Amino acid sequence: MGKTSGTKQATIVVAALACGWLAIEIAFKPFLEKFRSSIDKSDPTKDPDDVNAAAGSSSSSDVDYKSGKDREINKI
Q: What pLDDT sits at residue 14?
């Protein structure tokens, strides 16, 4: 057995990576399809952290997070 060339080694490495990627795609196909469909259905303009605008409630400074109730703010 002689030395293998760098091109042959690189080809083998790329082929092994491709086979590994294909094996992962096949093994996790149901999960990946569900994940990809949920990404397609998502609305990129909606911010999930912005619950005040969707619920129509008061601003975050008006909420007492310990009791979960709105608190009175004295405005000048």
A: 98
